Please model this.
Amino acid sequence: QVQLVEPGGGSAQAGGPLRLSCAASGRTFSRNSMGWFRQAPGKECDFATAISRSGSTTYYADSVKGRFTISRDNAKNTVYLQMNSLKPEDTAVYYCAARGGVDYAEIYYRKSEYDYWGQGTQVTVSS
Model:
């Protein structure tokens, strides 16, 4: 069992940065591939980015590529999402997710492939 907690979130001006974190409980964090998804008001929950358990492989949705960076610190059981050059359309509830029992470099981008989810954190970008 993995529990994911996403403190913070927050607000930013368009063009500015914001950093999200997601802390995992348990001693199996390093065995999990991690992802970030987001749900804008009135829209589906969409994939944003993912990182392999080793951190060696990352993947980004086109909408965030070049602006967002996912990283992880397995010693701290934490995954991060650095968001730069924010746009108003980045306004959404952001969720981190984990999938266990994976190979070292695998990543996943479908919601159905993830086993555990955080509670979500609101990000608001104003123009």
Q: What stands out?
A: The longest strand covers residues 92-99.
